[in-house]
Amino acid sequence: MRHLIDITDLSNDEISRLADTADRIIADRQAFSNVCAGKKLATLFFEPSTRTRLSFEAAMLELGGSVLGFSSADSSSASKGESVSDTVRTVGCYADIIAMRHPKEGAPMAAAAKSPVPIINAGDGGHCHPTQTLADLLTIRREKGRLGGFTIGFCGDLKFGRTVHSLITALARYEDIRFVFISPPELVVPEYMKNGVIRRNRLTFAETDSLEQALPELDILYMTRVQRERFFNEADYIRLKDSYILEPSKLRAAKSDLCIMHPLPRVNEISAKVDDDPRACYFKQVENGKFIREALIMFLLGLM
Predict the structure, then answer these.
(1) Which listed residue (40, 127, 129, 141) is catalytic?
(2) Of the listed 52, 87, 133, 151, which one is catalytic?
């Protein structure tokens, strides 16, 4: 039995297989419409979510399976003090696979140790978000035709952004990638990331607080919002939340084939006027997330 807790649980070959399967689903959705008939996915979301939870549910339904679960800790027995381990052991009696989001780092790993069915980490605190990373990798591959040989800029909250940390970790295993980290000093990439995956893999990276200076050299721009829920001090959040706003005027100096990504939800860090720019790929990311989750569910259930 396999779980997906961290993106490093998957080899590059397995990621390629998942992306290939997602491409086949995109090309012929009807061919996969009954693959999970009789199977049930439980969505255990101890933290609010819209895109990720609905993406998992849509993925399972499109595969012909069914869905059960809850969308907040308040509507679960966690509000009565039940442990995560007991919750997954119970839900594992009802479902064939579990997608779990939790505000505490490491909670999905603890759940996997006791679960009788595969666990998918749908985001744990500021740690990682492996299925968003799979959606990101699929988007990059479909837009650029490759996973390597480009310069990618990460902009915004690089300290608490679990999607950023997961994608850096995943891309570190591919060749000829240069990172540009764009953030205010308070939200830089954590030292444990720099001293770990970045320097350990001898990756080339630069740090700057200027989006305008970095844009012309980028092949991919990965925008993120400043996350209010990760701040202990409301004043710090208010001071930093509008650090970077991507507007059409700033894109004049960018490459014509720039790929603009964002894990969503956005607040105002990307102007709605950018949505019509052909370089905007963030809503493609959303749809790609559904397809790659379909492939992942099939993979963990041994159906591909």
Answers:
(1) 129
(2) 52
Give the pTM: 0.91
Whole-angstrom Cα distance, residue 128 to residue 303? Answer: 26
Q: Is 101 a catalytic residue?
A: yes
Tell which wins on pLDDT, 134 or 187. Answer: 134
DSSP 254: S
Whole-number Å distance between alpha carbons of 19 and 120: 17
CA pair distance 67, 274, nearest whole angstrom: 35
- The pLDDT tens digits for 205-258 are 999 989 999 999 999 999 997 755 544 455 655 555 556 889 999 999 999 999
Any residues with CB less than 8 A from the CB of 259 and at least 6 apart, and which?
A: 139, 140, 143, 144, 219, 220, 221, 279, 281
Query: Is pLDDT above 90 for 13?
Result: yes
**Cα–Cα distance measured from residue 265 to residue 260, given in angstroms and rounded to the nearest whole number:** 14
Segment 157-168 mean pLDDT: 88
Pick from 65, 14, 56: nearest CA to 35: 65
Catalytic residue among 2, 24, 51, 142: 51
Is residue 52 annotated as a catalytic residue, yes or no? yes
Widest CA span of the chain, in angstroms?
55
